[in-house]
Structure formats: structure tokens, C-alpha cells
Amino acid sequence: MAPSSPHHVGFFHLSIRLHKGDNQHDGNGQVTENLSESPIRRGAFRCPSNQFNQEMNMQGESSRISRRGLLAASSSAAVLLTSHAFAQTTPYPQRPIRLIVPNAPGSSVDTIGRIVANEIASSLNQAFVVDNRAGAAGALGIQVGRLAAPDGYTLILASSSAITVAPLLQKAVSYQPLSDFDFVSLLALLPNILVCNVDLPVRSTAELIAYAKSRGGSTNMASAGIGSASHLAGVALQAAAGFKSLHVPYKGGSQGVASVVSGETDWVLTPAPAALALVSAGRLRLLGHSMAPTAQPIGDTPSIGKTIPGFEFSGWIGLMAPKGLPLKVTETLQRSVSTALQQPSLRRAFETNGAVSTASTAQEFRSYLTRDIEQNRKAIQVAGIQAE
Questions:
Q1: Domain total for the chain?
Q2: What number of H helices and E strands is found in the chain?
Q3: CATH number of the domain enclosing 203
Q4: Residue 357 belongs to a domain with what CATH number?
Q5: What is the mean pLDDT of each run of 10 residues along the chain (388 residues)?
């Protein structure tokens, strides 16, 4: 960048280019530069000599610079350079890392987050401190994380409900998912599973669709509430397959699933942890999962996408950070996440919680989120839900 004036240029070089042989004392304890040997006179700057001499004559004598000023400037420069070098060379992390979890302790997101944090902590040889900030469907914790310093010592355990859905359904949410955060890596995909009452005369996704169509919209779909994951997933399934079921919202996932068991409702497309135990006990019939056709998150259970090409509607959990995270910190965390997700013990723990370990690059994470936002926006529009 070009200097703003000859004065700034001259002072900068005088402060770093003075040499013992170029100076003379003026009798007042100051050092005066020998201008005949100065970098300005030697053409180090594009400053016309006549202009410079005129300005120097207006001062009455040669420019004076105090020894104390030179020492202060040199000390400040040394401190800045040393601090910069320290920041560049100090390995990360140097102290415990806070992991903000926007869900209550014991929730599936919290459980998976703690499992991953434990493995990453071992890889980095540094403790993770879990900070649960539940509220407003996860938006409260996300906002706390967004406002933290982007130094790598505050990370965010993000999920589809808090990052994707909350901004679409809550007018009070001010953060922008794609622009207000830095992406580290996906951690897990959370497949939804399509289950029905055991007395329903269907044994596959195709048969459920045919049965619902034959009933002319009189079948019932349960959900954990308006705008919940099971609500939006069920709406997306109906739109993709071209059938209608009456939506029956309940106050929570367990009540919605229980209604399918009892026969109050016919089916639900719900996060796997909410229903797998009942499937194993023979109280629900498992018809399919919501991941890609090539995925096998639950044994040999077929993907809904094999019946409805292109259909995918799963939850996710990922690691994000406040905007401005240094690249080297991002890379360090990505390596640790990749190592953690390869551990057999972690994979087994994920399976127990109905999750599929999924590492990614920052760009892959961003692309996945972009698709997820659009998919949920369409489901919300189809459902006719208004943001409040």
C-alpha cells in the first residue's frame, strides 16, 4: 500500500534505518539524522528532494528523533512480531475446549456429542467441557456459540433441528446458518425409520403407500408435534409418494410412537432411537429407513429411496464454530474427528443410539446443509406451517 504522506514514509524508515555512522548529536541529548546519507536522499522513496528540503527548512533545522522514541518504537515492533510468531507456532489446543450443546443432558444429540467429544479429547490430549444450553428448539445454544470468540476454544454441536429448522419456524432466530458459522465436519446422520401398527395389512413402504391411497386419505400419521422432525419427514414422504394421511400431532416423540403401537394412528416416520426398541420387541413393524439406497444403517432394512427414487430425509449432527475460525485449527479438528469416527467403540455406541458416523470436509458439510435447508423449507410449505 502506498504511504499516505512523505512524513509518514520518512519517519518509518528513519526509525529503522539509522546507523551509528549516519548520526550526530545536537548537544541536547537527541540524535539528528545525517540527511545526506538518509534513505530518503538515496531515493528509497518517491519523494521529490526539493519538496522534502522545503519542508525541512520550514522546520528550521534537520528532523530530530529522540532516542527514547526510537527505543519505544523498536520495543513495540518486537512485541508485535514475537506475538505473531507465537500465535503461528503455538500448537492447538493449549487449554480445555468448551463444547456448546443446544440440547438437554440425556437427549440423543447430547449423548452422541459426549461420545464424540470424549474421543476427540483423547486425540488432542485436551479436555472438552460440555455446556448444555437448551431452549427455543436449540436456537438459544446456537446463538451463544455464534457470539463466542472464533479461537477454537468454543465449538458448537449443531443439529438439523437447531440449525436447519429453527430459523425457518422461529421469527426471533437471528442467525444465518450458511453465513454466520464456520463448518468443521459432519459427525453423524440420524436416519428416520418408517414404522406402522403391527395389525396394519402392510409389510413394505410400497404397500403402505398403496394402502393409504386406497383409503382415500383416511389413514392417520403421528408426529412429535407441529414442525417436529417426524412431522416434516412424514409430510415430505406423502408429497414424494403422492398420498395423503391425516396428521395427528402429539406432545413429544414418545407419545407419537406410542399412538402407533396402540392403533390410535397408523404410521410414523420418526428418528430411529424413538422406535427401534419397540421394533425389536415386536410392537411396531419396520418398513424402511430414510437414508440413501446404498446405506444400511439398520441391518437389511431397505431404504425408502428404493421405492421412491431420490427420497432422503434424515437428521444430522455436526461440529461448527463461530465465524472466523483459523484454518489450521479447522484442519486440526477435522483430523481429530476423522480419527475419532474410525474407532470401533464409537461406531458401536453410535449404532446403539441409531446414528451413522459420517465425517466430512467443511465444504461437504456446507453442501449437505444447503440441501437440508431447501428440503425442509419445501416440507414446511407443503404442511402450511407459518413461522411464529
A1: 3
A2: 13, 14
A3: 3.40.190.10
A4: 3.40.190.150
A5: 39 34 41 38 40 44 46 48 51 96 92 94 95 94 97 97 96 96 97 97 98 95 95 97 97 94 97 92 97 91 96 96 97 96 92 89 97 96 93
